[in-house]
Amino acid sequence: MSVQIAGVIIIIALFGYIIFLHVQLTRKNIFIESTVKRLSGIEKSRSMDEMIAFLSELQILTQYRSFFSDKFLDDNKINFIVENEKDFKTFIHYTKEVADAKSILQNGFMFAESFYRTALPVSNDKLDLLIKHNSRKFFGEYLIIITISNDIVNFYSMELEKAGVKTYSFENVLTETPPAQNENSDMVYKLPFQFVKGYINHITGEIYKNPTFDPFYNSPAFMKNINLLKNN
Question: Exposed, middle or buried, 215 (CB in 10 Å: 0-12/13-18/19+)?
Fold first, then answer.
């Protein structure tokens, strides 16, 4: 008799759990449908302000906080990333470990072959910045900001052109250490730490500034790199 009662209790519990899952699934479907409708309306109106407002609204939804909770939309974070945009080239990179973020601040930013594999160029276009952030933020909560003055970028881009070097870009010569091959036979370059403006924990909103940041940093090694590439 007790076995039958236990069986009935288990069946009732399973039935209740199925109902619970069904309710949760229905709520999520309603959320997705309403989101799609909202996005469709925004797409038709082509309003950047509406899109930004909608993303902000998503951030404060408690039920989905684990997916959308970060402090990136705060104005002081965005201003820190793209201030004086007209004078600088700015890039962002994401990393999971705070130790890696601190190492980049102290030692420089290492990249294999192409700088643009892991560094995204950004501007003061807030919507574009948000889209790029949302596409990469799951790579890590620490957002590295790399900023180089247009004067440095333009000068070394022009010097590469004058030297007839067409297979390399300015970021490949902005290094003070010789590039080396990694285990995948890719050439690894290190951008000097002076070009690292700092990093942001986009979950907590904390900003960490690099006290040695200098977007106009110009090392004699940069020109030597161009001469080496020219001779090779």
Answer: buried
Asked if pLDDT for residue 155 goes beyond 80, the answer is yes
Residue 205 scores a pLDDT above 50:
yes
Give the distance, in angstroms, between the CA of residue 113 and the centroid of all CA atoms in the same chain.
19
CA distance 111 to 190: 6
Residues 121, 186, 88: CA angle, nearest 5 degrees? 20
Query: Could you tell me if 159 and 170 are in contact, meaning their C-beta atoms sit under 8 angstroms apart?
Result: no
Q: What is the pTM of this model?
A: 0.71
Does the CA dihedral 135-138-142-144 come out positive or negative? negative
**pLDDT tens-digit readout, 82-125:** 988 899 999 999 999 999 999 999 999 999 988 998 899 998 88
Give the CA count within 13 Å in the CB-facing half-sphere of 88.
22
Task: From 214, 231, 213, 212, select the one nearest 223 (Cα to Cα).
Answer: 231
Q: Tell me how far apart the alpha carbons of residues 18 and 38 are, in angstroms, rounded to a whole number.
A: 30
Q: How many whole angstroms separate alpha carbon 147 and alpha carbon 123?
A: 11
CB-side neighbour CA atoms (13 Å) of 14? 6
